[in-house]
Design goal:
alpha+beta, 39% strand, globular
Length: 171
C-alpha cells in the first residue's frame, strides 16, 4: 500500500505472510511437516488465559485451540487443532476435513481492517485479542470461504508474546 496509509486489506506481497491448516492432531501434523523439512515449530495454547477477548459468529466466544507456528523467511506456517468449540476450526473440519484453512495478512489497524473487509462484503466470523504480553495483539477471520475456499485473517501482531509451551526442532 502507498506511503503513510495503514495496511487494512490483503496484499499480493508482504505483509501477506501466513498460511494455516486445521488438523485433528497437532503433533501428527507437525511430524508431517517436519518430514518435508519444514520447521522448527513453536506451540501455544490459546484459551481464556492467553486470549482474554474472543468472539464467534457475532457472540462472545469461549473457544480454545493449540497452534503451532513455523516461520521460514517472510512466510509463517500455522497448524491449528481445536480443543474446545464452537469455533471456525471445528466448522471447517466438519465441512471440509483437515487442510488449508486460512491465509493471514498483517495489518496496522485491526478495526480498520474489519471495516474495510465488511465494506467488501466479508464479515468477521471469529476474532480474538489481548494475547500479547502488554494485552495487545488481535486477529479477525473473515467469511471468504465461498469465494476463495478458505478464510482470510487480519493479524495485528503483538509487541511481545510469552514463550511457547513447546518447541519442536527439525530432526
Amino acid at each position: 500500500m502507498a506511503g503513510d496509509q495503514p495496511r487494512l486489506l490483503p496484499a499480493g506481497e508482504p505483509p501477506t505472510g501466513q498460511i494455516a491448516f486445521v488438523v485433528p492432531d497437532l503433533e501428527a501434523g507437525v511430524r508431517s511437516w517436519l518430514n518435508l523439512g519444514i520447521g522448527p515449530w513453536n506451540i501455544w495454547t490459546f484459551d481464556e488465559r492467553l486470549l482474554p477477548q474472543m468472539s464467534y459468529r457475532g457472540e462472545l466466544g469461549a473457544f480454545a485451540m493449540r497452534g503451532a507456528l513455523c516461520s521460514i523467511g517472510a512466510l509463517t506456517y500455522e497448524l491449528i487443532q481445536s480443543l474446545r468449540g464452537p469455533n471456525i476450526y471445528e466448522d471447517f473440519l466438519v465441512a471440509r476435513g483437515a487442510g488449508p484453512h486460512h491465509l493471514g495478512y498483517y495489518v496496522d489497524d485491526i478495526d480498520g481492517a474489519i471495516e474495510a473487509m465488511a465494506n467488501r462484503g466479508y464479515p468477521v466470523v471469529q476474532s480474538g485479542s489481548g494475547f500479547g504480553l502488554d494485552g495487545d495483539g488481535a486477529f479477525a477471520y473473515f467469511d471468504t470461504v465461498a469465494d476463495f475456499g478458505c478464510y482470510y485473517e487480519a493479524i495485528l501482531g503483538p509487541r511481545g508474546l510469552e514463550a511457547p509451551e513447546a518447541q519442536i526442532p527439525l530432526p
